[in-house]
Structures are given as C-alpha cells and as structure tokens.
Amino acid sequence: MFQPARGTRDFLPQEMLKRNWVQDNIRSVFEAYGYVPLGTPVFESWEMLKIKSGEDIVNQIYYFKDKSGRELGLRFEWTASLARVVASHRELPKPFKRYAIGPVWRYERPSEMSRREFWQMDVDIVGVSDPIADTEVLSVAVDCLKKIGFEGFVIRLNDRRLLESLIRVAGLPTDSYPDIFRAVDKRKKIGDEGVIEELGKIGASKDASERLLELTSTKGDPRETLEKTRTRIGDDVQGQLACDSLSAIIDYAESFGIAPYLIVDLGLARGLDYYTGPIFEVYAEGFEGAGSIAGGGRYDNLVETFGGEPTPMTGISMGIHRLVTLLEKMEVFEGKDLGPNVYVAVASDAVRSDAIAIAQDLRRAGIQTELELLNRGLRKQLDNANRKGFRKVVIVGERELNEGCVSIRDMETSEQRKVKIEDLAEAL
C-alpha cells in the first residue's frame, strides 16, 4: 500500500478544518492591516533560489531539471519569489504590502514541529526603510497569534549589522560573516563547543570565538541592553546605526501596543544570508521549547541582487503546522464548531424533495448544512450525524411537514422539538 513520501502527510477532514480555521483567521488579520495577496509559482529558477540563501538552505532545496534541461527548484520560502516580482514589476505602488499563504518545501529531518512539506503564511512590506515597517509586521504577527488563541509572547530582536559589529569587536575574520552567522544560529543545537569548532574552520582563534559567545549571550530589557551594547561597540558606525534602528522599533512598539513583549537578544542570528538589518523571532509563553512561532527581518538588498532597483523590504513568516500543533496542546479547538453545523435527516422518500428544499434554504441563509444522500433509515442517519460530530439534526418527516414543521434534535442532550419551517434558520 502506498504511503505519503517521507516528511509529508495527509490531512484528514478534522485536521484540515483546524488548519483552515487558522488560515482564515490569520488571513483576516492580514487584510485588516491592508495587505493584499500575491500568487507566485511553486517552482523557480535554481540560480535564483540559491542567491543569498546560504549554504545550509541551498542544501535543503528540492532540485530538479525539466525535460528541456532547465535547472529548477521548489520554493523553500516566499521571499525570493516576492523579490523577483518586485524587481520585474516596477509599476507596483509603494509601499507594496503583500501576503502569501501556501506550501513550501525543504529537505530536512522531519520532526513533530517540522516537515519537508509545510505551509507558511507571510506578510512583507516593500518600499519602506523606516523601522515603522519592521514594527508593523511584528504587530501583525502578534495580532494574528492573539486571534487564534495565544496570549503571552516573547519577541526577540537583533540586527545583522550589530552582529557584524560584535564580530569585529571580538576579533573574528571579517570576510566570513555568513559562516559566522550560521554558526551562531546553531548554538542551541550544537552548543558552545560546537560553535567554537565551526568558527575554527574559518580561521577564528578560540579566544576570539569565546569572546563572541560572551558578547552574543547578552539579552534582556531592550533599552538597558542597547545602552550596554553601545558602550561595548564604541565608535563602530554600523553597529551604532543598528542600535538606532532597534531603538526606533522599541519606540514604535509602544504605539503598536507590543512593547511589553520585546527583548533584545544579541545571540539571535537567523540562518538566511539575505538579512541586512533588524531580525526578529516570536515565541509563545509556556512553549518556548517548541521554537519560534513567527520569524523574519529586513532584507534591503535582495531586489537589487535580482536586477531591480534598490528597494527596502521587511517581513515575517508563520508556519501553520507548528501553530496547529501548539493550539491542539492548548485545547483551543475544543468546543469550536468546525465544518458543517447542521445535518438534515430524511425520514422517508416521500419527503426527500422537501428535505432538499429545506437544506438549500439553510445554506442560502449562511448555515453550513449536510443533507442525507444515501437513503438510509433514520436511526442510521442519526448515528452517522453523531459520528461526524454534528450538534444539530433537522428531521424532515411527513407528519411534521403536514403541520408546516420539522424537528430539531440536539445531539448532545437528545432533546427534540418541533419548529415552524419559516422559523428554522433562526432556531438553529
């Protein structure tokens, strides 16, 4: 018997209903902030996907050739495709605020929280260099997460330019920033000794590596951490500019209402090579061990790299699988009406046409309704409705129809009552 490929899975109806509920709620927040959808292909040029992605990510891209020998790859995230569109469509009005929801693919070890095929939900702002844009995408993520049931958050902030400054202060080679970022990013997985070993491969001394680990261990209250960091980096211009950007995000966060969630974490690196400024990750309180539930940053050079004009961009991404897994642990879906609400049972063939008409009226009234299609006996219909989790069953019988009525059965209490057909939608 055939099974889904490793790292992928089927989602049966009850699982898909949960995923759709999450997507629908998050999409509504995206649109409330004025973001518009953009569709792009699931596969792109291999050369394009490799640009600014980083060695670790390149090794995870699903690569193939088409029948004409063109080198292609499945998208591993949404950002590269967005940058390609912006580079080739200069007529797009700025700021361009887009969202995307759909599957992406990475060849990595599957786990409870990660798959090789997974769905990402992204928002990005194109054409705004001011940190207000970075703060807005963070606010979008927080509002999305609140709407689906999360409450407390920790937002970790850093800046790639500040990391570069710390690398210079520590005395590491300045021609290997991407390799150093990747090593720091893997600190939780490989430990300090693993990071020192990785840095040694690019010529960093043990003393310099230990100094960098010390510097990147600093985290805490945003303003206090930045004040301390400014002193440490001295007159390093790029580092001070990074501190300015983070300070602006902290100020804007007060107005957006997300300031209480912020910390500055100098050890935050993120793995992609294209980040150029602020970077951030969002964690759910009580589930920090599950990893980030949203993450992103600023990437101001990517459009230019793809042949377009210099264009500032920033964005954030959330993964549906991780969110649904945590929401299930939080029992958020318990008691929610997901899927059809009402089952219309047909007591006999004589009333089938009337039952169809009643079901149609309920659907047109906006009530999700399933109609019996198999000509089963009433008991089997009720059993079927119970197995599917329907809370209400409308029973269409000859006697009740002669009175202009139908019966509503509450599947939780087994109570049954008659209502006039014209009052049915309101009664449900």
Question: How far is it from the N-terminal to the C-terminal residue, by CA?
Answer: 43 Å
Tell the overall outline: elongated
CATH topology of the largest domain: BirA Bifunctional Protein, domain 2
Stretches where pLDDT is under 50 for at least 5 consecutive residues are: none
Please give the count of helices.
17
How many domains comprise the coordinates? 2
Total E-strand runs: 17
CATH classification class of the largest domain = Alpha Beta
How are strands sequenced across the largest beta sheet?
A: 1-5-6-12-11-10-7-9-8
Question: pLDDT average, as an integer?
Answer: 94
Portion of residues in beta strands equals: 15-25%
Radius of gyration: 27 Å
| Largest sheet, strands/sense/barrel | 9 strands, mixed
What is the helical fraction, as a range of percent?
40-55%
Please identify the structural class as seen in this structure.
alpha+beta
CATH superfamily of the largest domain: Bira Bifunctional Protein, Domain 2
- Which CATH architecture of the largest domain? 2-Layer Sandwich
